[in-house]
Amino acid sequence: MNTSTSTTWASKKPGRSPGERLVEAILFATSLVSVLTTAAVIVVLFSETFQFFLRVPLTEFLFAPEWTPLFAEPRYGIGALLAGTFLFTAIGLVIAIPLGLLTAAYLAEYAPHEQSIRVKGIMELLEGVPTVVFGYFALLFLTPILQNLIPGLNLFNPISAGLVLGFAILPYISNVASDAMMAVPRSLREAAYALGATKFEVVTKVVFPAAVSGIVAAIILATSRAVGETMIAAIAAGQRPILTLDPRETIATMTSYIVQAATGDQPAGSLASRALFSVGATLFLLTLGFNILAQRIVERYRERYE
Amino acid sequence: MQRGLIQDSSQNPQKQQRDRINRVFARAVVVPTVIALALIAVLLLDTLYDTVSVQVVEVTETSGKSFALGQALTADQVIRLELAAQGKSEQEIAAFMSDPDEMRIFRLRNRVELMWATQDGPLRWVVSSLDDTRIKNLSLIEGLRQWNELKQSLNENQQLRLNPWLDYSFLTRDPSRNPISAGLRVALFGTIWLLTMTLLISIPIGVGTAIYLEEYAPKNRLTRFIEVNLRNLAGVPSIVFGLLGLAVFVRGMQLGPTLMAAALTMALLIMPTISIAAREALRSVPDSMRLAAYALGATKWQMISKVVLPATIPGVATGVILAAARAIGEAAPLLMVGAAAYVAFIPRGPLSEYTVLPVQIYLWISANLSEFANTAAAGIVVLLLTLGGLYALAFWVRRKYRVEW
Amino acid sequence: MVQEVAIGHETVRWEPVPAEDAVVQVQNLNLFYGKHQALYNVSVNFPRNKITAIIGPSGCGKSTLLRSLNRMNDLVPGVRLEGKVIYEGVDIYDTQVDPVEVRRHIGMVFQKPNPFPKTIFENVVFGLRLQGQKTGLDEVAQRALERAALWDEVKDKLGEIALRLSGGQQQRLCIARAIATEPPLLLLDEPTSALDPIATERIESLLIELKQHYSLVIVTHNMQQAARIADRTVFMHLGVLIEEGPTNQMFTNPRDKRTEAYITGRFG
């Protein structure tokens, strides 16, 4: 029975004291802070980006081969930053996907209870390491080793940055993917065992395919984290935005460029500063898209088994 | 038919193959965990290893002598010995040390340190000057291997030291462009200030949001929108929050590169984390508690503030500590809102300039000087110890105050 | 071999399944979940090419007994087992026996239909693919679906995802999947409990058909179902095998008071 005719939240429960209503109003106001934050992010990024596109044609943004806003003859090709982000992310995923999925399989299918708590603890530990520490490790430990193994490897390169990134995002894959695998009904596993499947076959031929949407969501989520990961890229991958797919070269990701630009001094309202926000807007749209996609997929597989 | 039941691999190569894959896979699933653990271990050991180095220093202003631990215990005693070694008389030393200006200048230009080893022997005090030039800075193993040659080749004014970068004075020194005198004091104070301000802003907002969504919010589209928005906000890269802070707080509100701008930025960043943890804690309070409070004539807010919230304190506290741990390790958004500037003094208030631990570490790493790698390593050890302490605290709170409903 | 068993003042004639007619012989089986004992010294022979029903109140151990026939209980952590289960002359709990191989020979159908989220065809040939069979899959799938009385309904949509089928169709698909590898023995764990009466009737007549090719053991909580389809019936109570014999005899003239009480509906 709904007695309220008004649509506002405050009048929903009539006859309450003003104090009670004030409390509710304050709490409602706090919950709006997150909405305002999102709104502010969008307004800030896109108003600056709009100003940017008043001066720089979209074709330049999309197709120019370089990103050099501070040069005498500036170029604004986001492709250079996207290529760098792609290299960094792809190398991270090459590490994180197999390791993350194996860990998920271990957590969901093999590990006894106490053991899985321990493994989750290790994953939490990995998640808790500040990324500036990972960056330090990539630049000063991994890169010198890799330079001995890979000829022509620059000091700043997406290989060692990406390798370390892989471990930073591994927990996201293993957590979400193991949840998805645990959501696969026991009856499917039993059906496969009853047909004479080995455990490996149950995992790979029944559990993996049944959990595939959750696994895909896990990978997308990890991709989103990787694209937005800043310190590892800024420290170890470099800050030189050129259009290349050679992983031995110094590159710049969108995030490392933002750091580089911000630690320099660019007056508000300058074109270089607006360019910075246009990179931020691209980064925001990309990660938001990944996150929403992952959520949609997770919601869909939840429905399937409930 | 019977034969098939007995495991006789030689008769069925195909089954043999399946069994082998099965066994290999059962082992392979553990491998990533082992690799991850090994990586963490290597990372820690490498960082610790980098906090010591072997240096050859050309001494210009000081005596170049080292003093045994038995000769001096406090910095003042070391300074006295050093002044004597520089050839000053007893009166001169007494006059020098009783003049606060002289001493302040001396302390600014020099650094008193206990080295693990020098050419004169182990555990000796050394006074280094800012103007000393470092001829070599070698890693521990490299330095120890060449120790004797280095010792042989020392000139008149050169000193050989095994320098532990992470010592008490490292925590109490101000930052410097010179690694020999660079310390963490300003960054430590900045981190404490920033964390306190961030939590003061984000806890009320985060917990308030959680209470509203769990206890008050009607099931309508606005509520649904707030929930989805909160989840999406948690997935926005932290650097984007930095851009927001730059445009709104630093420039728009004209706060400049101050603690206040940074705290507001960080508060927005960790608010979703706190809110999500608080919602889970609220959800775990059984409805029977709420009904019991109502049955005693409590109003809604009395029910929440007197019954529900006290029961959620451990859960909220754990969430807040974990969010604080995240905030302490964040560097990216703070680089956008001014933490990267060179700051020589500890903050005096919310509108002071500041720097924080991870940003200081980043600046040292990017300084591209091998001795700054040592200070960065020492900074990382401090950062990780702080985080470890926070995680241990969260674990303890969770254990100690866990309620079984 | 006819046995005469004295129960109280009465003497009942009782004929166990002779060993040579048995597809599986259970001998002195005790089963423990941790410290809890679920089966007490169970001995029974299950006949070849017949349907044997296991009945009893819930929690009596009937599913546990069924699952110990193909070592599905191995998958439960903390299970311990004593005694023998002899299938075709081999104790399936012998240390040399591979449980995976056991389950290949002894098929199983579960309480709730549990098709894999794959196509109908892929469901049926799943067991064959496990064994590396690559040719003749179409023929085997057709034969299995025909025997499961599902072929006519699905022959035009073998490529569809199996989850779209109705509950009864899904359960017949699971039966087809189980018999595609030609297991001599088929175990069914309350296969119709999740189905409506019409689907149940189809499955029951299908099971009677399947008797020609396979031996069947079915757990059911439905007395009428046992009476309709089973040649022999086993009655379990609190982990103990109370009574076993031809279905007719057990339902018309039970030897044990507990059996009588259960069958007449006084508990269960």
TrEMBL record, chain A:
InterPro entries: MetI-like, MetI-like_sf, Phosphate_PstC
Top-level taxon in the UniProt lineage: Bacteria
Segments forming domain ABC transmembrane type-1: 82-294
Keywords: Cell membrane, Membrane, Phosphate transport, Transmembrane, Transmembrane helix, Transport
Membrane topology: Multi-pass membrane protein
Transmembrane stretches, start-end: 22-46, 76-107, 128-147, 159-181, 202-222, 275-294
Compartments where found: Cell membrane; Membrane
Pfam families reported in the protein's UniProt record: BPD_transp_1
PROSITE patterns documented for this protein: ABC_TM1
Function of the protein: Part of the binding-protein-dependent transport system for phosphate; probably responsible for the translocation of the substrate across the membrane.
Family: Belongs to the binding-protein-dependent transport system permease family. CysTW subfamily.
Annotated protein name in UniProt: Phosphate transport system permease protein
Name of the gene this protein is made from: pstC1
UniProtKB/TrEMBL annotation, chain B:
Domain of life: Bacteria
GO annotation terms (biological process): phosphate ion transmembrane transport
GO molecular function, one term: phosphate transmembrane transporter activity
Protein name: Phosphate transport system permease protein PstA
Lineage: Bacteria, Thermotogati, Deinococcota, Deinococci, Thermales
Membrane disposition: Multi-pass membrane protein
InterPro entries found in the cross-reference section: MetI-like, MetI-like_sf, Phosphate_PstA
NCBIfam families, per the entry: 3a0107s02c
Residue span, ABC transmembrane type-1 domain: 188-393
Family of this protein: Belongs to the binding-protein-dependent transport system permease family. CysTW subfamily.
Organism: Meiothermus hypogaeus NBRC 106114
Chief site of localization: membrane
Keywords: Cell membrane, Membrane, Transmembrane, Transmembrane helix, Transport
Localization: Cell membrane
Ranges annotated as spanning the membrane: 24-45, 186-213, 233-253, 259-282, 303-325, 376-397
Gene Ontology cellular component list: plasma membrane
Automatic annotation (TrEMBL), chain C:
Keyword set, alphabetical order: ATP-binding, Hydrolase, Nucleotide-binding, Transport
Assigned EC number: 3.6.3.27
Keyword S-adenosyl-L-methionine: no
Domain ABC transporter: 24-263
Domain of life: Bacteria
InterPro entries hit by this protein: AAA+_ATPase, ABC_transporter-like_ATP-bd, ABC_transporter-like_CS, P-loop_NTPase, PstB-like
Pfam families (UniProt xref): ABC_tran (PF00005)
GO MF term list: ATP binding; hydrolase activity
Name of protein: Phosphate import ATP-binding protein PstB
